[in-house]
Amino acid sequence: MSDHLSGTRAVADPAIDLTDLYAFPSPSRPGRLVLVLDVFPNARPGALFSDAASYRFRVRPVSVPLGDSGALFDVGSDEFALTCTFSAPDAPDEDGRSEQRGTCVLPSGASVSFLVNDEQGGEGGDVRCYAGLRLDPFFMDVTKEVETRASGRLAFVSQGTNLLEGNDVLTFVAELDAARVFGPAAGSVFAVAAETVTLGPYPVRLERLGRPEVKNILMSENGVDSANKIVDLRDLYNEEDPFRLGPTYLDAYRSRLNANLGFFDRLDGKLDWTTQPDGTHPLTELLLADFLVVDAAKPYAEDSFFEIERALLEGREYTSCGGRSLNDDVIDTLYTLIVNAGHGPHVSDGVDGTVPALRDFPYLAPANPHPPEQATTIPKAPANR
Description:
Strand content: 15-25%
Structural class: alpha+beta
Helix content: 10-25%
Low-confidence stretches: none
Largest sheet: 8 strands, antiparallel
Order of helices and strands: HEEEEEEEEEHEHEEHHHHEHH
Mean pLDDT: 92
Radius of gyration: 20 Å
């Protein structure tokens, strides 16, 4: 379920649970890059951000090698961070509502202040920020996806059910002039990751997020990884730096991805990916470089997720902005990629969208004032295949 509930720590504290990350050129303001970070699955009216954590976009320039299908992205060492913190909420008013204020520190060191749930947000330093409760833009037939992994066959149906329909999330949105905020020398292609970290002199990374479904699907425990049958790798993975995996658990992540990617390739009864003699899957190292890659100079596109990565794999020039838009059907893109490498029929979970996102700031659709009462949970797939 994208990154909702992706580990025991996230389940214990929904205010720091990153659910989705998006990066796309603005569809209404050419030259502006939009970054969106969603947290707090199935947030209720009155939900607030944590005042004990910071919510951070991390952006680095990246180059895309051409003509070498075995190459990886070359991520620069320069980093541009947008870090948002929130105050403790004010005392409730007579209607029981509490106000909360946010501050976003920009790469220049300047800051933008705003009131949570203020539709206009705050603006300064070529950056406009919004934070508040909005409709969860993610859509997926979670039940059929879990059944697919449990049964070892594609269980999707033509008309799927979006488990998240009508749910709300807390969101932090930054719309910025990339050339002015990051500088012209940074170029237009960026690697984007997000994280939540504790406040204080010794910050601890609580969660991090790049591409959707890396933890909940690609690193899930499906009973096929013979090297890791007990440990839930997601909490360990959440503690890693998005741009530099530590050596301690790297082999464990590789083992899990190699095993799972082979499992997904077999779901349609045939093999479309060619693994190396040692079992290494062609997608493993690319997926471990876990961040969105977006070209802010290209026009907005709704279906551009993984386009730049696919171009890299195929040794060709990419044709769209990459990144990830709010309306992008990433589950169909992901499953088609891992099941048949794009060489077979389109794989769909039967859910093609939810309430469309807006084309202007703050981009996410307004919150559902009466969200479903049930808590969002992910059914467990049995691991004894």
